[in-house]
Amino acid sequence: MVLASAVLILAAGAMAYIRLAPSDPTQWNVALTPRPAQITTPSPDKITVLNDGAYVDLNVAADQTQALLAKLDGIALASPRTQRVAGSAETGRITWVTRSAFWGFPDYTTAESTPTGITIFARQRFGAGDWGVNAARLAAWITKLNT
């Protein structure tokens, strides 16, 4: 009985830590160039799946990036359990946090204007693999961008 209680208390503490962990904008809303070290050469307009997230380059004319970032911001904010951490379309970089339904695991997605369009990098905060969740979210957001 004591062991079961201890396990429940530890699980509740871990869940509270994960769900309530603050999102520091200075840690997550950072420039994506140079690209994160684990990314070599992503295919344009194709999602590159990483162990801890996903990455995509969208080739867009320079005069369209701000409008596309604004549209992406609306799509992201309409997604379940997603909030803006920092940035705006006007500044050329936006970061959102999306939390899983049960545990509240945070995944961070940053979209940034680049000379060739928009780069989007979605990554997890905790754990060693995201089971394709970030790539699926990016695919859904990009599909909505194209409609």
What does this structure look like?
The structure is a single chain. By secondary structure, the chain is α+β, with helices and mostly antiparallel strands. It has one domain: TATA-Binding Protein. The protein is 33% helix and 28% strand. The chain is built from 4 helices and 6 strands; from the N terminus they run H-H-E-E-H-E-E-E-E-H. The protein has helices at 2-20, 25-28, 65-77, 133-145; strands at 48-50, 53-59, 82-88, 93-99, 106-114, 117-124. A 6-stranded antiparallel beta sheet has the order 1-2-6-5-4-3, with helices on one face. Helix 3 (65-77) packs across helix 4 (133-145). It starts with a helix and ends with a helix.
Characterize the main sheet.
Answer: 6 strands, antiparallel
For the terminal residues, how far apart are their CA atoms? 56 Å
* Low-confidence blocks of residues: none
Structural class estimated from helices and strands:
alpha+beta
The CATH first-level class comes to Alpha Beta
Total of DSSP H or I helical runs spanning 4+ residues: 4
Total tally of structural domains:
1
Describe the strand arrangement of the main beta sheet, using strand numbers.
1-2-6-5-4-3
CATH fold label: TATA-Binding Protein
Q: Supply Rg.
A: 17 Å
Percent strand: 25-35%
Mean pLDDT: 83
List descriptors:
TATA-Binding Protein; 6-stranded antiparallel sheet; 6 strands; 147 residues; alpha+beta; 4 helices
In short:
With 147 residues, the chain is of the alpha+beta class.
Q: Which helices and strands occur, and which strands form pairs?
A:
Elements (H helix, E strand, L loop, with lengths): L1 H19 L4 H4 L19 E3 L2 E7 L5 H13 L4 E7 L4 E7 L6 E9 L2 E8 L8 H13 L2
Antiparallel strand pairs: 1-2, 2-6, 3-4, 4-5, 5-6
Keywords: Signal
Protein name: DUF1499 domain-containing protein
InterPro entries: DUF1499 (IPR010865)
